[in-house]
Amino acid sequence: MYLEPPVEVTKSEFTIKASEIEQFLRAPAMELKPWPNAMVQLKDKTMFIRHARKEEVPKMLSYIEKIMKVEHDFYDIVGVRVYAELLGWYRNRLKDPYVLVGIIDGKLAGMANGRILNPDINISHHTMTFIRKGRIGAAMYYAKCYYALEVLQQKEFWSTFESYNGWMLGFRTGQTPYPWPEYQHELGGARVYTITQDMWHRSVKNFDQEVIGSKFVFDNIPEELVKQSEEFEVPEEIVV
Hints:
By secondary structure, the chain is α+β, with helices and mostly antiparallel strands. The chain has a single domain, classed as Aminopeptidase. It has helices spanning 18-25, 57-67, 75-90, 136-151, 164-172, 197-202, 207-212, 223-228; strands at residues 38-42, 45-51, 97-104, 107-116, 121-129, 156-159, 176-177, 193-196. Helix 2 runs antiparallel to helix 3.
């Protein structure tokens, strides 16, 4: 939009550097405690869970791009949104995101992501698994809850669900819905389901033992497992 100045000006054109504009486009980052490395036993496999690194995003996108074309169980819309979330992190266009990856034998087995709305509220985005069965999805979802409510000590964990499989995770954790439409999740304006600190300590904190079948281990993780999980390969085929 152009408007004529209401007064005479001595300089009618100004130059501004893109590096000066960037501060207005990028949300200032909060200082957050990191996710502590963890391992969990899944049947006959051990999964290592760590923060993803930004430089790993491109190879994750190459796989998610394939999932965007899968037209069953809502994988197409989930794939599109996860692609945007990962790219938003990579391009610094997402406020305080976190991405956790689950790695089994050097292979990317699952991922879970979300972002920090404010010091009190953690917004869950998506949980995806790339190896069939094994309770990988449940483990990755629990990792997000643990990060929000135990590590960051936030008051609430907000989630919503786009698929029936995803909704089952919320059902098993007994999440309570907020009234709709007064509260809407940023993923399409769907219902907000929440886990509070009280719910976490009363029941959800034991989800790993009760549903996954084994406790998360944060201490004395074998150095060999840590080294093996320093890098990961993405699956060659779509198995969703």
